[in-house]
Write a structure and sequence with these properties.
Blueprint (H helix, E strand, L loop, with lengths): L9 H19 L4 H22 L6 H8 L9 H20 L8 H12 L19 E2 L6 E3 L4 H17 L5 H15 L6 H15 L10 H7 L1 H13 L5 H35 L6 H12 L5 H8 L3 H13 L3 E4 L6 E4 L1
Antiparallel strand pairs: 1-2, 3-4
Length: about 350
């Protein structure tokens, strides 16, 4: 039986609490369908781009955005483009499968892998089938072998044990289950290629199926890609510490917390903007005044001097605009003299 070794530290507990707060906000918040749709599309592009970028594609986010929006981008590597499309297709598969109340199975994992590597780098390495030969993890710069996965003869047994554990771990937070599953999958390295991408999609599948889809607004691979050394170090640290996953779980929950706090903050800002638009609809405010109220949903405060520069107006006009908004009890001032600034009330 697969029995992961780990301790839930204060750091992990704090991360889980923040993640649950963000989840609660998303479930309770009345977010406009248009905004949700736009942000879900952005999250899908971010996840597809960053997960494939970790594995060596050289597309920029802007190029990925254009490609997945159906635009033709000149001068990009055909394999990079196809890997991006494949990842997006695999994400769609995961999103569709989550509606089915079934267990995680080896067939699902093999299907995800087949979608990912069909027709691209690794596509010749038996897509959708566990490896039958030894593979190695090599330092891309020095070509030094840094990890030798289990022998091919052990792969199916190890994968069966992992899948059994995923489906039976009912008394552990689904977030912890997803993080452990991602690590253990990478550790087994059951396919000749595409293991990192498949592991991250397995993690996503587990989160989605257990009610932690967070309205599909997050991209955990974005955090990994931007902190790539920490990502590899966190994985390697487990192997160097007798397979104790405590530090990996801390890192994994750090990543998810970072993503969810960002999503929560974005959602709060859009709600504030909607409230402000509703509140000022029947007030006699000019365009500058409305714009500055919306500006303050994204920024803590503004000074008179910043207001003057923003609209290229006189200090007298700025004083009048700000004074009128103050009278309506929409903003409040802090500080005195030249240090005076204004914030939403």
């Amino acid at each position: 039986m697969f029995t992961p070794k780990f301790v839930i530290t204060n750091r992990t507990n704090n991360n889980l609490a923040e993640i649950e707060r963000a989840r609660g906000f998303l479930e309770a918040a009345e977010l406009k369908t248009e905004w949700l749709s736009r942000m879900q599309k952005r999250a899908l592009i971010l996840e597809s781009h960053h997960s494939t970028h970790i594995e060596g594609t050289e597309l920029t986010f802007e190029q990925a955005e254009k490609i997945l929006s159906g635009e033709k981008v000149e001068g990009v590597d055909a394999d990079d483009e196809m890997e991006l499309f494949n990842y997006k297709q695999a994400m769609d598969y995961v999103s569709g499968y989550v509606k089915v109340e079934e267990l995680v199975t080896g067939d699902i994992i093999r299907d995800i892998h087949k979608i990912l590597v069909e027709g691209v780098r690794g596509g010749s390495a038996d897509p959708g089938n566990y490896r039958t030969i030894q593979n190695y993890i090599v330092n891309s710069r020095t070509r030094e072998v840094i990890y030798t996965p289990p022998h091919a003869s052990e792969v199916e047994k190890l994968m069966d044990e992992l899948i059994d554990w995923i489906n039976s771990a009912k008394d552990i937070s689904p977030i912890i289950v997803a993080g452990i599953a991602q690590f253990q999958f990478v550790h087994i390295h059951p396919f000749l290629d595409g293991n990192g991408r498949t592991a991250r999609l397995l993690c996503t599948l587990i989160l989605y199926k257990t009610g932690y889809d967070f309205k599909k607004l997050f991209s955990i691979s974005e955090y990994y890609d931007k902190n790539r050394k920490d990502y590899y170090d966190a994985i390697q640290n487990v192997r160097e510490n007798n397979m104790d996953m405590t530090s990996w779980i801390e890192y994994f929950t750090d990543a998810l917390k970072s993503q969810m706090v960002d999503v929560k903050n974005r959602g709060e800002k859009i709600i504030k903007k909607d409230l402000i638009r509703e509140r000022v609809r029947n007030l006699n405010l000019n365009k500058r005044q409305i714009k500055i109220l919306e500006y303050l949903t994204d920024n803590d405060s503004i000074t008179r001097e910043q207001y003057v520069k923003m609209f290229d107006i006189s200090l007298r006009t700025a004083n009048y605009d700000i004074s009128e908004i103050e009278k309506l009890n929409l903003i409040k001032r802090a500080g005195i003299g030249r240090a005076t600034n204004y914030m939403l009330k």
